[in-house]
Amino acid sequence: MTEDWENGGFGIYIHWPFCTAKCPYCDFNSHVRSNINQKQWLKAYLNEIKRVSEKTSNRILNSVFFGGGTPSLIEPSIIGDVLNEIQKHWKTKNNFEVTLEANPGSVDAKNFKAYKEAGVNRTSMGIQSLNTKDLKALGRTHTVEEALAAFEIARQNFKAVSFDLIYARQNQNINQWEKELSLALSLEASHMSLYQLTIEQGTAFGDRYNRGLLKGLPNDDTSADMYDLTLSLCEDRGLVSYEVSNYAHEGYESIHNLIYWRYGDYIGIGPGAHGRLTIDGKKYATETVLSPEAWLKKVECDGSGESNSVVLTDQQQAAEFVMMGLRLKEGINYQRFKNLSGSAFSKTKLNFLKDLNLIEEKDGYIATTNSGRKVLNSVLTELLN
Q: Rounded to whole angstroms, how far apart are CA atoms 274 and 196?
């Protein structure tokens, strides 16, 4: 019998928690360290791979994603050893995807060739801006010229290259964003992640915002206009908005991220990594120790970096399925929701959202419209409460 997670696939996320500097907007689990024993980290990663494989080795693996932090600081031989260990324990899909996140300042032509030889076949680059002044404001250590050079190095080595840009930044108007996005689109990347600047608590930007020191942020109407412009310009270039913030040419969608959005199973390895894993018919939400040093010690002493593993109720699974799946242009399968939750959506709520042109129903799927994705949190609140 097919288990629900198989509708979404199976992947492995590996977290490298180190960066050369901490960006003021970043709320990821990233840290700056002067000395890192990469061999020690390799040993811990291999131990965790062996541990989690014991319950999942009969599965076929869709993807591996090295995230961070800045995984392009990892020695290529370490990446190769990790991938070799993974392929000892799992069979892989024919279109098996291996993504390495990279920051432009750490891109090296020799290393990228070695990453490719190690088994990486996709890279996601944190360019974030093509404006020198804004790069500095975002705390990025690379220049526009370095970003463009890094992109060319990546494209020479990988068929699938994605990069991130942040928009709706301080003092940015819609004309400036149109010019910057047009330059980005001229690079002809196969995939782009385009995010509006979000002020997260616990970050340097969050602290400045709370003290009234983060000036020049666009209002909601301007941000919405920027979103519409982004959608229009990307689709004019053949990049489909397959997810709220992600655009791709057909066949270049992120296989790994689709596992999250389609509510598949994924293993989280490394400090602060989360997972969703179905064992014996129960779906577990897993967490790992946050501190890099504490995670290493726990793996070495206890044989596991996991800090928490909780069985999700049917209602929790159904809610997560909706929250992730409605980010996608394809939406969610209605029957799958009913199978998870044991009930159907309120017809009154569905009709209310359809009348507002925020959702649509087609071929057994419920999906948000372009208007609905702009107010996704409100759509989710209406459906789930």
A: 24
- Spatial separation of the C-alpha atoms in residues 32 and 17, rounded to whole Å: 8
**In angstroms, rounded to a whole number, what is the distance separating the alpha carbons of residues 236 and 225?**
17
Q: Residue 3 burial (CB < 10 Å; 0-12/13-18/19+)?
A: exposed
Question: Which residues in 51-204 belong to E strands, given as ranges?
Answer: 60-68, 91-102, 122-128, 160-167, 191-196
Asked whether the CA dihedral 191, 239, 256, 224 is positive or negative, the reply is positive
- 276 assigned to some structural domain: no
**Helices and strands, number each (H, E), in the chain:** 15, 17
Question: Among 208, 321, 376, 288, which Cα is nearest to 15's?
Answer: 288
Q: What's the rounded Cα separation, in Å, for the pair 171 and 103?
A: 24
Q: Quick one: 255 and 183 in the same domain? A: yes
**0.90 exceeded by pTM:** yes
| Beta bridge pairs of residue 268 | 13
> Can you give the length of the chain in residues?
385
Q: Is 127 exposed, middle or buried (0-12, 13-18, 19+ CB in 10 A)?
A: buried
C-alpha span between 362 and 360 (Å, rounded): 7
CB atoms within 10 A of CB 55: 13
Domain with residue 132: its CATH number is: 3.20.20.70
pLDDT in tens, 62-100: 999 999 999 999 999 999 999 999 999 999 999 999 999
